[in-house]
Design goal:
Layout (H helix, E strand, L loop, with lengths): L1 H18 L3 H5 L2 E10 L19 E5 L1 H12 L11 E12 L21 E14 L3 E16 L2 E11 L14
Amino acid sequence: MALHFEVSRFLYREARLLDEERYDDWLALFTPDVRYWVPGVENRMRRDPLGSVIRSHMAYFDDNFTDLSRRVARFQAPTAWAEDPATRHVHLVTNIEVDAVAAEPGADPLRDGEEPAAAGELLVRSVLVSYRNRNHDEEDVLSARRTDVLRRTDDGLRIARRTVVMGQSVLLSQNINTFL
């Protein structure tokens, strides 16, 4: 229970940092070797062995730490016209599940796109709802299932890998200038 509480607090704090546009503090929650992957979701028949997430197909984001740093810098730049006035965000994180060790035989199988955790890392699954409001009438609700691999460091928990599988196969948003 203590581990679940620690991980939940970490994810809730991360959501608050994003909502408060504290992007440098948010970026500090990642390891230097992070992979932040948001694949496209394909509508496929249940019997299709490829599934709805295919590693070699399109991704909205497939970022490393340098890519995330560039995106943060772009958000903070005075020339980021899409963010002036700022988009208002509310990130809701729920359904948090924590596995303290890598998946063992007989454990829950990994979902599409998930990567196993290494020894000493935490495999964390959660559900995210991201509400975005821009200007007077632009409103988006993005839902996703997330799988994080958290690593304990001298500075606390850090995100080593994040996979975000969107609930939508077609994004109707005018843009996806957000972090999930």
